Amino acid sequence: MDSLRRSWPIILLILLILFSGCKVRDLGLIEKSRKGTTQKKFSLGKVIYGPDNRYEVTEYPERKFREFARSTAGQISRGLLKKRGGSFYLRAKKLSENGICERERFSDQPSPANCSGFLIGEDLLVTAGHCMQSEEDCRDYHWVFGFKKNSNDQVTTEFPFENVYSCQKVILAEYDPLEKRDYALVKLDRPVLKRKPLAFRKSGKIYDQSGLIVIGHPSGLPTKIADNARVRENGDPFFFSANLDTFQGNSGSPVFNKKTGLVEGILVRGDTDYVTEDSCMVIKHCDNDGCRGEDVTRITLLKDIDEIRNFRLKRNKKMLKGRYRVEARELSIELPSKGNFEYAFLLEADVPIKFMKLSVKVFHPMIPELEIYLVHPSGQEVLLNEYPERSRNLVWKKTFIEKGGSYGLLGPFLGLNAKGVWTLKIVDTVLLDKGSLEGISFSINDKVY
């Protein structure tokens, strides 16, 4: 009995590993850099079945899936992305610096992505549930589109604003290692530009032995497309298994039906990625019918996706729109007592901005508690309001005019393209008091029609 008591921690650890079968971020070996940002060393997760079927996006032969790759994103720590001017710059370790043998494919490429995700709405992203387990997962990471090897054979490490997004909130999330439920739906901080939401299965399930393709960030690498896979086990109501060539970092990747092009599910877990050999790690290889297989959460589990997406589409049909000018008077839209409020409007003119005029009217019992921003479609924003500490105004009404040489608050927007969804963002920093957005008008290039 005493020996059993001494052994119970080891038994518990073995049971946890057997039941999870999952490569959650906490199971990896985490290395802290000198600056405090986290960079993973890969240990548990997925595997190569048969030949290595991973392609660079630009090298994949089917154009349809190269286009689908544009709608996938990598979850990258904010600490690895430095904002300078109108761009974000990535600084990350190479895969070989995380303990992988230099002879392995892609070992000379950076590997910063923690998970993968994909668009199913203009500002809705799906990923694995174990990638979004806390508020910190929402707050501490960016979702980056276009992290790939380009046609010049160079890995992209500089990203414009329109490629980098934040998690505003987690709409749905479930991670249950015992029942193998693993999915999340994330609302991004703004609509994603120039990338189409992916189509997905709405009902039923994929046929046995169907061909599959997965797109994501294996081992945190730039986007890869992997094909030549098939459904191996299809009996569980929550997930199916396949011989997909995936790794840690692929969690959250869309898994496509090769024939239909529909997303069938979300890559969530699998076999061990690497094994140690000669003081470094090499890829674990299995026969196409060998090892445990890779598990894919059925996309049909997210039953609320269509309802949420359709609601947003209806909302956007009512969005304020104009070519050069928009105006809404007597809005009286209530602001939250604490938190973010966003009022979006669409400019359709595909022209560079030479002149701007913005008028805003806001009511609030405590105006100094508010932060009011104008956000360009690229994500670049400016703070519009600064107040004396003892201000007691109940109405904030102000007009901003900007043109070349005026050097006002809206100056950073001059020269940018006007087309896209702009946002007036109001942040209430204190609980209790409520206010309202009363009106807004906005025009560019001195156009009034």
SS element count, helices: 4
Strand order across the largest sheet: 14-15-16-22-18-17
Helical content (DSSP H or I, runs of 4+): under 10%
Q: What's the architecture of the largest domain, going by CATH?
A: Beta Barrel
Globally, the shape reads elongated
Please describe the biggest sheet, giving its number of strands, its sense, and whether it closes into a barrel: 6 strands, antiparallel, barrel
User: How many runs of DSSP E, i.e. beta strands?
Assistant: 32
Oligomer: single chain
> Structural class given helices, strands, pairing?
mainly beta
Mean pLDDT: 84
List the uncertain runs: 1-44
Which value, in Å, is the CA radius of gyration?
A: 24 Å
Strand percentage: 35-45%
Structurally, how many domains make up the residues?
Answer: 2
Q: Tell me, what is the CATH class of the largest domain?
A: Mainly Beta
- Span from first to last CA? 86 Å
The CATH topology of the largest domain turns out to be Thrombin, subunit H
Structural features, described:
By secondary structure, this protein is mainly beta. It has 2 domains: 300 residues, Thrombin, subunit H (Beta Barrel); 126 residues, Galactose-binding domain-like (Jelly Rolls, Sandwich), CATH 2.60.120.260. It has 4 helices and 32 strands. The strands form 8 sheets. The chain has a 6-stranded antiparallel barrel. A 6-stranded antiparallel beta barrel has the order 5-8-9-13-12-10. Strand 12 and strand 13 form a beta hairpin. The chain is elongated and about 70 Å long. It starts with a helix and ends in a 5-residue tail after the last strand. The N terminus is likely disordered.
